[in-house]
């Protein structure tokens, strides 16, 4: 076969080996703060449209939420019997139906068989329905991409049944997962780069319904480290008074809070973007300490459960109750996730540690 069809043979052996086509990373889009605010689910769609034509082994679909997950690329053909007129068996887009567990199990089977890179999609909260099979993705070391949208109370009016609170804590507690909450377009591209580069573990990309700004200092490459210094607000010649760690949609909220603390309280505030705790935990100790500076009070801001954040910060700010139904701006106000509310807590924290030593965080191992 290699002699008769050398190009097809090379393509087949590449896919079986789990190697990706050369140069695919160069197609990932990059953004500047001058670019408009966009929901990260839409930014994900842009990435999928860039990669699907050049990574022909990328196969997957949605659990009956294609219009919301935005996972179908232009020119995609549904995997369907040809007589139905809906597609053919050369198609790469799967209509899984409303069965999240089955969807994850099917993707596990494809990944275990090899020569394909499968992805599955639904709302983040509904990965709980797939917990048994998605856990096996991690246990079996399979490269399955879980493209999860509507990642927080930011989905708004669908209410607490659809708003994930504890879901990310569950996923972060699962060994061998990579869990991403990208803050903007560069971090979405970085999340896809990391997810595709790690052939021996599944990834969850948690994406927003609401638009997010493209941030100054965000980086595709820095996303691969899991966490990094995004910006410092205040005099660079002074010691930092506070670190604010943001993740996903709350990173831009951390930036606005830092500006408020600088302007109204004269503080010097470092903002850290933390799109993936698992990748950050893999970095050398010196790097982690350069990001989360010892001796400086740190808070985290995430519109999800605060469970697990005490390892990284002195005060996690989040939501430890179920969500609520309403426009997402009102929900952020209700749950105290506004620059003013966060700044008030941060000021108290900084004042508290002026009179005693700031505890060292668990960043050694």
TrEMBL record:
Keyword hit for Transferase: yes
Keywords, ordered alphabetically: Transferase
Domain of life: Eukaryota
Keyword Transferase: yes
Protein's name in the database: Transketolase
EC number, UniProt record: 2.2.1.1
Organism of origin: Coemansia helicoidea
